[in-house]
Amino acid sequence: MKNLLLATLFCCVYSVAWSQTGEEEYLYLTFGYQEQLQKGLDDKKGYSWKPITKYKFTDKMGLPMLRRNGMVSSFDFEGLFREGEDTPCSIVCIYRKDENMKKRDGVFIPIPHHESGQDIRAKADEYLKSEVNFKSEVMYHYAIALGRLAIKQSQNEVTTQTLAGGN
Questions:
Q1: For 3-25, how does the pLDDT look when each residue is reduced to its tens digit (9 = 90+)?
Q2: What does pTM read for this prediction?
Q3: What span, in angstroms and rounded, lies between the C-alpha atoms of 29 and 40?
Q4: What CA–CA distance (Å, rounded) separates 62 from 70?
């Protein structure tokens, strides 16, 4: 059931407009961006990152001895934009278990464009299944966050079409 829900949400996210993700961009999303942040490097030449949306939630796994009812976690979605383009070629989701955690220390989850090659989409799916081991509560919130991303991206697409005089 959980996998069906995630697959449906991925389809919704993928159905909004942005450019295809290439192999080099997939590797940058999955590994390079985090390394760039950790080392304080500049963005890859010809690309830039822009925040898209953020989803915060309270992890109910409280720590009673510390008098905490749970920690505030977040999913930050950022778009990778090619120079001169106004839609992202890829999106990365950065999971931060604690809102005070630095972005560079989060879990980076690639979300390639739906029209990317099957090999890129398969790598992203496999990465989520094998490398990202969320407990069920976090996976539940990830599904909600993907839904919010899909809504945000579809709103951006409508705005872009309206400004361009499209339907």
A1: 544 444 444 444 444 468 888 89
A2: 0.78
A3: 16
A4: 4
